[in-house]
Amino acid sequence: MTAKILSNAGKLLEEEYDFILKGGIVLDKLGQAPNPAPWWISEQNWDNITELDKVSGFHEIIDSFEQHYKAWNGWYATTFPEQEDLVGEWNDKLTDFQKICVLRSLRPDRISFCLTQFIITKLGPRYVDPPVLDLKATFDE
């Protein structure tokens, strides 16, 4: 529902939303850029980053990982990376939803919490809080 509301308002691109749902699926591993830090970037995470690089607004993110892999590792290793600034110009360059795409690429374990916070920030807590069940009113009906 949140995606539809933001999409209708022109605040969410379909390719970014698709990336959040599916992640990066690399069909041509031979044409994929080499992983600059395989000791901490898993194959799946690198697939996500290389496919994210193809989404508009993320071009050259691969270059950032190649040049600043130690800084990216520092961001990745934090307990709550969604609360930290992204590396280099990426923090100022990306929208809040685009930052979630980066988080999805490297730390999918944090995505549920991050999306909940995003929805609260953009639409309010009523979109994530479960409704209170009034048993008396239900019984009276």
TrEMBL record:
GO terms for biological process: microtubule-based movement. One of its GO terms (molecular function) is dynein light intermediate chain binding. InterPro entries: DHC (IPR026983). GO terms for cellular component: dynein complex. This is Dynein heavy chain 2, axonemal-like. It comes from Drosophila mauritiana.
